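Hey, weird one. I pasted the Putative tartrate transporter sequence into the form twice and got a warning about non-standard characters only the second time. First submission, copied straight from the form history:
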Amino acid sequence: MDTTQSVVERSAIRKVAVRLVPFVALMFFINYLDRTAISFAGPNGMNTDLALGAAQFGFASGVFFIGYILLEVPSNLALHKFGARRWLARIMVSWGIVSLLFTWVGNVEQLYILRFILGVAEAGFFPGAILFLSLWVPARHRSKILALFYLAQPLTTVIGAPLAGLLIQQHGLFGLAGWRVMFFGVALPAIIIGVIAWFYLADSPAKAKWLTSEEKTWLTGALEKEKNETAASNKHVSVRTVFGNGRVWMLAAIYFGFIYGLYALGFFLPTIIAGFEGLYGTKFDVLQKGLITAIPYLPAAVALYFWSKDATKRGVKTWHIALPALIGGLSIPLALFAGSPAATIAVITITAMSIFAALPNFWTVPTQFLTGAAAAAGIALINTVGNLAGFSAGYITGWLKDWTGNYTVPMFVVGGFMLLSCVLMVALSRSGKVSEGVPAEALDPAGAGHHSEP
């Protein structure tokens, strides 16, 4: 690679990082906020107004994932067929309209139906966004690009939890209860940004008006060469064989552990904070609870950024994924024995940092051996299994809590799933079925994702 080409490469990747990633990250931010809005609404008036018991609220939260799972793979295949720009914009406007309807939900049956339809509407967005960004940069740059994108998830809680609290405090606005104002406030941006996405996004570097001809040529050439090399070495990997591919299912199991930890943390952190009052005699208002909920996620965003920066520099290695799984698995049960609110939040912060440090690096692995429609199906399948973790984390944790009377056993189960992710990642690497990264400065255009393991 000559100096001119190196300059063109840096310029092209920088433009993708500045012009494309923040917008897709904003879409993800709104997506995650709309998905989790029910967790803010429930304890702040919705459960009382709709006469919901704990089991009904839990089912309403979980039924989202059933609708999501049913349409996940078909939606991502449709994205591959119709193009990311159109399909991601369609998904966003669809879920925004459904989210808006929560403002006027009148009973538990309507809540169940809307949560199910919201899952159907959102299906395909996250794996579609991952696939979309992966199609824009060669493998050796993906950990950096996906890390910038993934920053939106912890920042959703950092910004979203206090924002939800502020919206809920606007009780009486438009004659609505505070929790209804919150649903209204988080739904409108989805519709607006979804419409803008139709015009703003481009399906490929060749169609991006903000790239120079040299940058388009380099990106298109590097991606095409990488695609051909991957296809040549993985001719057997098609949409049909994805579902029988051992690596895909192993990665799905690894992802299950991370997402089980992520949603157990997300669902029960407000419960843990609420429990401080009984344990330590502390009292917080709605906004204060939102701010405390946000605390672990700001360091998590910092950890995500710098861990992925190191992965970009070295190339994604097994320990970039396995080590956070190990630390997270060991730390989450310790939160139960911390002894004070500050210590509990500190330990939970370590867990959140571990989960978010691993996730963007994890998503560089499937695209090492999957391309085209097979990548769309494989990524969607892995994410579907992850959403099974989202459904089961709340149910299993709550069931074990009721059975045992406390959160000790449930949190050890969470830790166990994350430790299993660590073990499986190491086993997958040692089997030679995923590659170790190469330095970002490597001249091979195929990059880290297509480097045979020694």
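That's the output from the first submission. The warning seems to come from a hidden character in my clipboard, not from the data itself. The radius of gyration is 22 Å.
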